[in-house]
Amino acid sequence: MKKNDLSMKKTALTPRRYAELRGMIQRSQQKGHSSAQEGFQSGAEQDGHHDEGFQLSLRETAVHDARTRELQSILDSSEAVQPQEQNLRAEFGVGLVLRYEDGSLDRFVLDGYSLPDEHPEGSSRPHTLSVSSPLGRALIGSRQGEKRAFRMGTRNVSVMVEKIVAPSKVDDISNF
Hints:
By secondary structure, this protein is an alpha/beta fold. It folds into two domains: 11-80, Helix Hairpins, CATH 1.10.287; 95-175, Roll (Chitinase A, domain 3), CATH 3.10.50. Helices cover 38% and strands 23% of the residues. It has four helices and seven strands, in the order H-E-H-H-E-E-E-E-H-E-E. The strands form two sheets. The chain has a five-stranded mixed sheet with strand order 5-4-3-7-6. The chain has a two-stranded parallel sheet with strand order 1-2. Helix 2 (15-45) runs antiparallel to helix 3 (52-76).
């Protein structure tokens, strides 16, 4: 294996996650375009250099362009991979219901990458948990009823796998 082969390894994303990432890129591009359009209109009305609306739109456009580049970089280093249909072990693509030591429950889909702001509060979809995160790595291979520990900062945290949901059923949190 060549030295560069390791750097060319792609991150696996479920087909749904891959499509969501493409949608995030499109929305970011549209927001950048809208900001630029507003700035152009604002700047056309008076001296753009001194127009606060124009200056603000320049900054907003730069933020959206940077976000688009960041998302595109993630997409370029990813590939859509169909997860194995099973609910016996915590693996890429399955849904998990986890019980923490304090009794609280959380629901995740194990995927290759987790992005911020992916689902607004009240969404009918569970959050994404990266398989390469400390919790994701701890859970890989676990079975229902198993406890797993991981480090979060300076403390050890223990979780129990309450339920494993097959990849075909993770689209709706009501299946959890």
